[in-house]
């Protein structure tokens, strides 16, 4: 049975009122979920490995949605494990828009992103989980240094590993209060129409932690002029900016050797971040 046939069976068994709707798999550079368009207004998302993000989204998306200026996913169906599929899965309302291309957006998108990040920081919902990758820099130190050393052995990538190490070592450790974060603001998790932010998806990493974690779009997406608009709109101090820069570089340095031959989208964005930060 193909995966698409399996999804059709899961829908028919658990949500029979949607069984007759057309369905097709959506192309994606993501590595955590497989997605299927269901009818005109829905999307099925199946975790490819651990389904621990599913209950996090089911709990927090309805609580976060009324507090944010941008559309976020709405769970319409809570799928459960069944024969042939061991994980929990979900049906969401379809959000329109396209993923933005790194380096092309302008100031309006920077302002929209800043408004989203600022609204997340203002959330005061109790019982928040720790954000994935939202803890101290020390927790990322070993993986970051290992990735830098691995890239020294890949000369075709032409990464200035000494400069990357300097950026990492110069970042001050986080010592402030935690705030609510999306914690995975990659271009693939942003939806844009006519240069404006229309949606933010994939809240599987969301929780509380270092506010620098939501500065990633400054280097993984925005060009230099829009980067400054983003920073000014958020009022980011030098220490937080340096930490955000280092965190974004760390993620890219770890991703590049891992994905360079298997996932062109993830590897391409990692290269973009490295060029942007070190350039």
List the quaternary state of the chains. single chain
Number of helices: 9
Main sheet summary:
5 strands, antiparallel
Shape: globular
Strand content: 5-15%
Shape-level CATH architecture of the largest domain: Alpha-Beta Complex
- Helix and strand content put the structural class at alpha+beta
Number of strands: 9
| CATH class identity of the largest domain | Alpha Beta
State the strand order across the main sheet. Answer: 1-2-3-5-4
CATH-defined fold name of the largest domain: Aminoglycoside 3'-phosphotransferase, Chain: A, domain 2
Low-pLDDT segments: none
Tell me the series of helices and strands, N- to C-terminal.
HEEEHEEHHHEEEEHHHH
| Count of domains | 2
Question: What is the helical fraction, as a range of percent?
Answer: 40-55%
N- and C-termini, Cα separation: 48 Å
What topology emerges from the helices and strands here?
Blueprint: H1 3-14, E1 23-25, E2 33-38, E3 42-47, H2 53-64, E4 75-79, E5 89-93, H3 107-122, H4 138-152, H5 161-170, E6 179-181, E7 190-193, E8 196-200, E9 207-209, H6 217-220, H7 224-234, H8 238-259, H9 264-278
Antiparallel strand pairs: 1-2, 2-3, 3-5, 4-5, 6-9, 7-8
Helix pairs in contact: 3-7, 4-5, 4-8, 5-8, 8-9
């Amino acid at each position: 049975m193909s995966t698409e046939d399996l999804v059709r069976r899961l829908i028919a068994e658990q949500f029979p009122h949607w069984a007759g709707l057309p369905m097709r798999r959506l192309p994606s550079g993501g590595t955590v979920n497989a997605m299927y368009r269901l009818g005109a207004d829905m999307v099925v998302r199946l975790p490819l490995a651990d389904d621990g993000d599913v209950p996090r989204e089911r709990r927090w998306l309805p609580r976060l949605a009324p507090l944010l200026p941008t559309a976020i996913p709405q769970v319409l169906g809570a799928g459960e494990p069944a024969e042939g599929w061991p994980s929990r899965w979900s049906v969401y309302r379809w959000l329109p828009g396209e993923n933005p291309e790194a380096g092309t957006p302008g100031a309006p998108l920077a302002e929209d992103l800043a408004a989203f990040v600022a609204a997340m920081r203002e959330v005061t919902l109790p019982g928040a989980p720790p954000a994935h990758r939202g803890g101290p820099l020390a927790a990322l130190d070993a993986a970051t240094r290992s990735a830098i050393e691995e890239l020294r052995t890949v000369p075709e990538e032409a990464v200035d590993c000494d400069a990357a190490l300097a950026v990492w070592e110069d970042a001050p450790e986080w010592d402030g209060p935690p705030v609510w974060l999306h914690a995975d603001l990659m271009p693939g998790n942003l939806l844009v129409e006519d240069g404006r932010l229309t949606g933010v998806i994939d809240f599987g990493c969301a929780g509380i932690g270092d506010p620098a974690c939501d500065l990633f779009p400054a280097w993984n997406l925005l060009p230099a002029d829009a980067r400054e608009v983003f920073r000014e709109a958020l009022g980011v101090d030098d220490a937080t900016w340096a930490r955000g820069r280092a965190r974004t570089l760390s993620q890219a340095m770890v991703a590049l050797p891992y994905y360079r031959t298997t996932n062109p989208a993830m590897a391409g964005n990692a290269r973009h971040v490295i060029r942007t930060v070190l350039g």
